[in-house]
Each structure stands twice: as structure tokens, then as C-alpha cells.
Automatic annotation (TrEMBL):
InterPro entries, per the entry: Puta_zinc/iron-chelating_dom
Protein known as: YkgJ family cysteine cluster protein
Entry-linked Pfam families: CxxCxxCC
Lineage, top ranks: Bacteria, Pseudomonadati, Pseudomonadota, Gammaproteobacteria, Steroidobacterales
Source taxon at top rank: Bacteria
């Protein structure tokens, strides 16, 4: 079954998730992509998030004009991932099925507003 969403028409909602957890393999892939040592890539692109419930490496964020913040690896002007071939596994699997709830919401709003580029404000 073909996915029922089009990432090219989305302003990068999934990249605005506050906690985008990455694995050691993901960090190594980013290091290779940028020609960096593993530890340099870890420091540059991630930070450690620790609570009683979690101990994760999270992708760093940057300020964004649509969402409060987005993944540091996201181009905020083009609204695209800058490391798509080297993106982490969590990004490769999103939205974990054939349907993206945000895309459905966005499509509805664009049809309702009669504006194919409409982006709901926060």
C-alpha cells in the first residue's frame, strides 16, 4: 500500500519534535557523512538527555520561524533535511506507517483555507 502523505509538501513537522533520539549507529553515520571523528559528531549534533525514565542522545535544535525550533540538520529556508541520505533511523521510519496525522491536518487546513501553501500558526 502506498503512503498517503507527501513530505515535500510539509514544512518539516517531524523535525520539530523536541526529542529526536539517535543511536550510536546514527551518530557514526553522521560522522562519516561529515568526515568527522565520532566524538566530534556527537558533540556537534547531539546532547545527552537523562531522566529517571530515559537516557538518550538527542539531536540538537535550532530556532525556526514556523515552529519554535527544529532539528539542527534541517534547512529552515528550503524546509528540507540537509543530511537526508545520512538521516537517523528514527527519521527513516517516521511516521511509522502509511499515514501521517500532521499531513492529514495540513491537507485539510490548506483545502479549507483555499491556499496550497498555508501553514497553521502555533
Amino acid at each position: 500500500m502506498k503512503p498517503r502523505f507527501d513530505c515535500l509538501k510539509c514544512p518539516g513537522y517531524c523535525c520539530s519534535h523536541a526529542r529526536i533520539a539517535v543511536s550510536e549507529h546514527d551518530i557514526a553515520r553522521l560522522a562519516r557523512h561529515f568526515g568527522l571523528p565520532l566524538e566530534a559528531a556527537r558533540r556537534k549534533f547531539t546532547y545527552r538527555y537523562q531522566t529517571k525514565e530515559a537516557d538518550e542522545q538527542i539531536l540538537r535544535h535550532q530556532k525556526d520561524h514556523i515552529y519554535k525550533s527544529v532539528c539542527r540538520l534541517f534547512d529552515t529556508q528550503e524546509r528540507r533535511c540537509t543530511v537526508y541520505p545520512a538521516r537517523p533511523n528514527v527519521c527513516r521510519r517516521y511516521p511509522y506507517g502509511k499515514v501521517c496525522g500532521y499531513y492529514d491536518f495540513l491537507k485539510f487546513e490548506r483545502e479549507h483555507q483555499d491556499d496550497e501553501d498555508f501553514i497553521p500558526s502555533a
